[in-house]
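Hello forum,

I keep getting stuck at the same step: I have a sequence, I want structure tokens, and every attempt I make locally crashes halfway through. Rather than fight my setup again tonight, could one of you with a working pipeline run this one for me? It's a single chain of 254 residues.
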Amino acid sequence: MGNGGQKKDRCVIITAQQADGRVPSGVLRDGDFIVCADGGQEFAREAGLIADAVVGDFDSSSPPDPAPGTQILTLPADKDETDTMASVRYGMSRGFEDFLILGGLSGRIDHTYANLQTLSYLTDMQCRARIVDGTARALMLDGVKKNVYQFLAGLETSAPMQEPADADAQPALPPEGDCGHLTLPYAEGCRFSVFSFEEQSLGVWITGARWPLENAVLTSSWPIGVSNEFLPGQAAEIYVRRGRLLILLTSNKE
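Reply #2:
Ran it on my machine without issues. Output:
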């Protein structure tokens, strides 16, 4: 797989940190525009991939010996963005709105958090984006953007955060339309965590999971959404009315 003449529809960023020491298998597809962030070029080379572009200051790898058609963007060592962020912004300059970042969750904690912020930046830019590093996945889910008056009016019709009146009472149903919604397909041997990536995320629902939530408030300082489990064979549904959620999927296996 490499840089061919066909139209590319997704930008893949290969970072310099890969959980298993290699690019994850089964995630690339024909039509991917491949950008290597600095040392990510070595993982691409080992996987037999030809990059469309290599971006970096090359402090973690040797300057590339490019294949025909590969563009090299050399960055200064003193800069205000990471190589991964620079690679993302390069992809955006090429018109891409769909991004897959490979690696970057299993290395230094500061680099990991920087990559999560890069994921949040892509969400700000209304791009479709996720991070895959070995068996770990990260993505963001936004609630509906409203002004405060519209939002407060909507809360008046939200289901109250309370227990059912009796054992036979049915739980309130998740909202329809006026919220962000994501379906997580059942993944055997995996757990998922849901965190607020803002000070507060309001109107959060989780269904199809061992520990559901109903119209909950998640905050950035209380990890109530950590390490949830799928119900056997069921997809999990996540909803948020307002705010931004970080969703992480990890393998149960040590």
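The chain has two domains: 10-134, 141-251. If your local run keeps crashing, start a new thread with the error log.
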